[in-house]
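Example record

One chain of 182 residues, shown exactly as stored in the release files.
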Amino acid sequence: MNAETKRRVAASAAGFALPRYDQLPTMGLYLDQTVQYVNSHFRTFAGMELTGSMVSNYVKKGLITHPVRKKYMRDQIAYLMYIVAVKNVLSMENIQMLFAIQQEISTAERAYNTFCAELESAIGQVFGLDAAPRPTDSDLTEEQYLLRRTIIPAAHKIYLDCWFDALRQEQALWPDILDDLN
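Predicted structure tokens for this chain:
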């Protein structure tokens, strides 16, 4: 991969930030609005997408609660943000277990905000950007340590998906470039 492609991959993560809990919509969102809202925060990353059928499936499996009057509320949106980030590295069963642990020891707001900070930091490090300093592993609770161990492979997966997407785009250009050179 050339230097320009590496810069494009890094640029896909530049400025990545998730809304904090108090910035999530306070009014419920319909399914399509929820999907669009969640996807808007991951749009620069290849392979990071949520669909309406996925959300419906997560409700059926009990990962998130049923919508209230067909609207998804702040806690459900926060859970969906987490699911989108880690669904490629954890089974649904393990995600559900992590949610249960989180609900026993923390509020949804605190857990979600911790997730956001960890993901943003890990993305910054994996993509080679300046990342916010993180507490050392020894300063973490067992639950925070487990969250970090979940987020790190997710950040690597996001990076690899972006890298391969950029490589495919680069390879797709070669026939056009070769035709221009002839």
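Notes: Residues 125 and 131 are 6 Å apart (CA to CA).
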